[in-house]
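Reviewer 2 asked us to include a model.

Predict the structure of this chain.
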Amino acid sequence: MLGAADICVLPSRYEPFGTVTIEAWAAKIPLIAAASQGPGAYVENDVNGLLVPVDDVEALAIAMRRLIAESDLRAKILAGGTKSYEEGFTKSVYVRDVFTFYDRVMKD
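Predicted model (structure tokens):
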């Protein structure tokens, strides 16, 4: 579904982690998310996505219009999202982090 999208909009009031955030980055789709717990922890506004206040419909509409109208911003967010995905969420990063954790546990 994300492959057919021009923008991923995640207006959740409550989102503990926000796997949709990671999925949008992996699919190279620009992201707009409500600044709920999960996205608020990972999305840097105007860097790898746009954050809007929870329940602020007008801010959400403005963010959507910005991404549609501003191709430079869209490109910047796509690049930032791709970088965030590649640095923190790929399979190789996950495997590396798991082995690092197990090595640390084995030493204790």
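The chain has one domain: 2-107. The mean pLDDT is 95. We have added this to the supplementary material.
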